């Protein structure tokens, strides 16, 4: 499998995925740490890819989304952004709403309380 296909598969098969340095339990950079903490605070499970353990993904991910830095957060297959955007969205309540909607939609249940 081509590395870009591998990245696309990770993005498409998870409602929320973060490409980060390290893991949510053991982040290897401050930006990855803060972004994964914001996702964790949304209260839903999310997938992660440790780019440090997959040099091919680390090398090619910036080309995949035309975004040069890590972490990269994808919700519903779309790049949301990196650490700063993720934290800003978390602080204004947007991130939690998007994460919960993406997880509910992926589960096929929908959220009848959503407006």
UniProtKB/TrEMBL annotation:
Q: Which UniProt keywords apply?
A: 2Fe-2S, Iron, Iron-sulfur, Metal-binding, Redox-active center
Q: Which domain of life is it from?
A: Bacteria
- Stored Pfam families: Glutaredoxin (PF00462)
Which of this chain's residues are annotated to bind [2Fe-2S] cluster?
29
- Keyword Transmembrane assigned: no
Report domain Glutaredoxin positions: 16-80
MF terms from GO for this chain are: 2 iron, 2 sulfur cluster binding; disulfide oxidoreductase activity; metal ion binding
Query: Which family would the database say this protein is a member of?
Result: Belongs to the glutaredoxin family. Monothiol subfamily.
Provide the protein name.
Glutaredoxin
Q: What species was this sequence derived from?
A: Thiohalobacter thiocyanaticus
Higher taxonomy: Bacteria, Pseudomonadati, Pseudomonadota, Gammaproteobacteria, Thiohalobacterales
